[in-house]
Structure formats: structure tokens, C-alpha cells
Design brief:
The chain is α/β, with parallel strands linked by helices. It has two domains: 2-61; 68-195, Sandwich (Immunoglobulin-like). Helices cover 41% and strands 22% of the residues. It has helices spanning 2-61, 63-68, 109-112, 124-134, and strands at 72-77, 87-91, 97-103, 117-120, 148-151, 160-165, 175-178, 189-195. The strands form two sheets. The protein has a five-stranded mixed sheet with strand order 2-8-7-4-5, covered by helices on one side. Strands 1-3-6 form a three-stranded mixed sheet, with no helix packed on it. The chain is globular. The N and C termini lie far apart (91 Å). It comes from Neisseria chenwenguii.
Length: 196
């Protein structure tokens, strides 16, 4: 019996020793594997930072071409009467600026339509009231309204519309964007900022 217990004890010690030997061997390669992976992840990040710095430096000397790439933006609207942004920044360097409005919801335009209208902040209330009177066939925008800088058509879920305008129209005053669908303007509005 003593021999049997001695053999079991020796086997248990041997297994424990094997288990201890295997664990460091497993963790060591994993740690070594992690180190090269971390190094390879760090290298592209450093490379991309360096390559990102180069275009930024080029952009400083070639501002017109760098700014030309930022002469458009996309604004999303949804079925909860929300725009995904409260500020549209327009570069002074742009000759034209394009806003794409995307309706990410599913409701039709008759029930939950959206547009995007840009006007001076002090004119927004009148633009919204006149747009409401104009009705859905006019996209809730008064025809020939000189207060409006730009306006998309009215769209429903899954649709998109674009409008392009001259940023110089934003030179004097404070401007806002709004959805003129009746009842939406209180929630769906933001500022339009002319930036350097």
C-alpha cells in the first residue's frame, strides 16, 4: 500500500511539475506573439501618423487643393425628427459647397419628410412659416424666397437630395439650417458656420 501511495504521490508531483512547465511555455510564446503583434500594430500607426503629417504639411502650402476636398458634407435625418449634426462648417476657400441630405428612416415623405433649408438666423422663423404655407408640393419652401441661401427637395425614408451653393452667400450674418416640414423646425435645426 505504501508503494501504491508513493507512486500516486510521485505521479501527482510529476503532473503538477508538467503543468507548471507547460503553463510558462504557453504564456511565454503568447507574450512573445503579442510583442511582435504590438510592434507591427505600432509601426503602421507610426507610419500612418508620419504619412498623415506629410499631407497636412502639403495642405499648408497648397491650401486651395486641400480645402477643395472639404467642399461637401452629408447630413442625415431620421424618423425621430433629428439631424445627426448641429453644425455645418463651410470653408471660405470653396467656390461651391454641396450638402447631401440622407433620410435614414423608413417613413414616407408625406408622413415624415425632411428637407434642409439654409437662411439667416433672423429669417428662419419666417422661412419656416412661409414654407409651411407653401405645402408639400412645393417641398415646404416658398417659391422665389430671397431669404433662402439653399434648400433641398423634400425626401422620405431611404432617399437623398443634394443642394450646392456659393459660400460667399454666408459672408454677412449668422446662418442656420432647418427642416421646414410642419412641426419639425423646433427639433431639426443647427448652425452654418463659414470657416477659414
Amino acid at each position: 500500500m505504501k508503494t501504491y501511495l508513493a507512486l500516486i504521490s510521485a505521479a501527482a508531483i510529476g503532473l503538477a511539475a508538467c503543468g507548471k512547465t507547460d503553463k510558462p511555455a504557453e504564456t511565454a510564446p503568447a507574450a512573445e506573439a503579442s510583442a511582435p503583434a504590438a510592434a507591427s500594430e505600432a509601426a503602421p500607426a507610426a507610419g500612418s501618423d508620419a504619412s498623415a503629417a506629410a499631407p497636412a504639411a502639403e495642405g499648408a502650402s497648397g491650401a486651395a487643393s486641400a480645402d477643395a476636398g472639404n467642399c461637401a458634407t452629408t447630413v442625415e435625418a431620421n424618423d425621430a425628427m433629428q439631424f445627426n449634426t448641429k453644425d455645418i462648417k463651410v470653408s471660405k476657400a470653396c467656390k461651391e459647397f454641396t450638402v447631401t441630405l440622407k433620410h435614414t428612416g423608413t417613413q414616407p415623405k408625406a408622413g415624415m419628410g425632411h428637407n434642409l433649408v439654409i437662411a439667416k438666423a433672423e429669417d428662419i422663423e419666417g422661412v419656416v412659416a412661409d414654407g409651411s404655407s407653401a405645402g408639400p408640393d412645393a417641398d415646404y419652401v416658398k417659391a422665389g424666397d430671397a431669404r433662402i441661401v439653399a434648400a433641398t427637395k423634400l425626401i422620405g425614408g431611404g432617399e437623398e437630395a443634394k443642394v450646392t451653393f456659393d459660400p460667399a452667400k454666408l459672408a454677412n450674418g449668422s446662418f442656420k439650417f432647418v427642416c421646414t416640414f410642419p412641426g419639425h423646425a423646433a427639433l431639426m435645426n443647427g448652425t452654418v458656420t463659414l470657416a477659414d
